Amino acid sequence: MRGALLHNTGDETLQVVDDLSVADPGPGQVKIQIEATGVCHSDLHAMTGSLPQPAPVVLGHEGAGVITAVGAGVDNLAEGDHVIVAWSPPCGKCSMCVDHKSPHLCVMLQFEWAVQQKFQRGDVGVFGMAGAGTWARETIMPWQGAIKIDDDIPFDVASLVGCAVMTGVGAAINTAKVTPGSSVVVFGCGGVGISVIQGARIAGAATIVAVDMIDSKLETAKTFGATHAVKPDELEELQGALTGGDGFDYAFEAIGLPATMRASFDAVRRGGTAVVVGVGKMDQMVEFNAFEIFFAEKVFMGSYYGSTDVRSDFHRLLRLWRAGKLDLEGMISAKKDIGEVNEALTAMTSGEVVRTVLTF
């Protein structure tokens, strides 16, 4: 089968091959034929090594498709079911799932699957990114990582829910719990940043400021709910005009850089909340002085996968989409064949697209 293969961490391009294979599902597993899969900055982070990921690896973690086989013991899914791939599924049994009621922080299944060479190319075992590997025509997942959806939902729309949209919307409504009438600033207007903007709009924020370096991305942000859109050097003046100098109620960082993480903290008022959604590097640090942490009483926090429970939140977002309150089709800037994956990565890094969806 076809798939996009990263041979070595640090390689700048992927090789699209047609001789990958994947095993039949074992107990508690399902095989999924991928019908649509998004191109995410996290895939690029895996290529560069910013996200730990052994190679060789089939990248991709944001996908939707059809179950083609089920393993022993799987009684809640069947062949022919349409599903969204959840790359970080909750096991349902650990302390995070049960005691702390934070299923999004469960890594029992993700860590187990991330170190498995689920694909094969000749005699060489191949990993799947984050245990998923949706840039292959077929993949296998634990049954908890396949969230059944209605058959009439388009696969390209469904695929976005698997990562970018859930991460961004979830950061606004689950992690930060944006309140009606509040003020919000979002640093970074890629797929995740646009999703944060949509989440803040759905939550009822009165002011949503988008911040980015690229003019076209700022214009796009306005179409998804941003009330204002500025470049970084214009933010201070706008912040003063909108908040009287106090700062915003909420800030979201959707880039993954220490400078913008720090800027998000500085942009919120005393007692405000700054949420880091972007994936930063493990060897980069964000600095604060000891006094400001005490004096400002700000909340500075991360948001992992939008603090989501994939078992219910995927469906919540799809209900919002059906109601016309969450624009998913508009986020799909381009559709390409898997053979054009390198072009899709280039378009993403240059800021030309909100999201590219790949098909086979």
Brief summary of the model shown:
This protein has 360 residues and is α/β, with parallel strands linked by helices. It is 30% helix and 26% strand.
Describe the structure.
- The strands form three sheets. Strands 4, 6, 7, 10, 11, 18 and 19 form a seven-stranded mixed sheet that branches.
- It is globular and about 60 Å long.
- The chain starts with a strand and ends with a strand.
- By secondary structure, it is α/β, with parallel strands linked by helices.
- Helices cover 30% and strands 26% of the residues.
- It has helices spanning 41-48, 108-114, 155-161, 164-175, 191-203, 215-223, 232-243, 258-267, 290-296, 310-322, 341-349; strands at 3-6, 15-17, 21-22, 29-38, 57-58, 63-70, 82-85, 119-121, 124-128, 138-142, 146-149, 183-187, 207-211, 228-230, 248-253, 268-276, 299-302, 332-337, 355-359.
- The protein has eleven helices and 19 strands.
- Strand 13 (207-211), helix 6 (215-223) and strand 14 form a beta-alpha-beta unit.
List keywords for this structure.
360 residues, alpha/beta, seven-stranded mixed β-sheet, six-stranded mixed β-sheet, 11 helices, 30% helix
